[in-house]
User: What shape does this take?
Amino acid sequence: MPFLRYPPRTRLRTIVATVSAACLAIAAYPGMTQGDESVKTPRPGRSIAEVLKDQTDWLLSLPGVVGTGIGECDGKPCIKVLVDRNTEELARTIPKTLGGFPVVTVETGKIRPLDHE
Assistant: This one.
């Protein structure tokens, strides 16, 4: 399996990011449609999906960040950063906007993959 060629830490980050994005999409973005029409922005430049893709590795490298995703804030797309605990240090480190899109932190607690034994 190609996925198993990656180091365990990379696989864990991929699993965490995927699970986080899926949970966010289901819970926080009920108006999402198929395709990426709902995540495109009328603003000139890149879509929110492109901005998130470029920034996710950096955001996940911050201590306390457990995931990222696309959500809806006041009827407009926003970037959601999932943290295990909101701290003042994270509030200072995580920007208020990325690529022109608002950024919101969501305290989720630790996210761990399930054992499949």
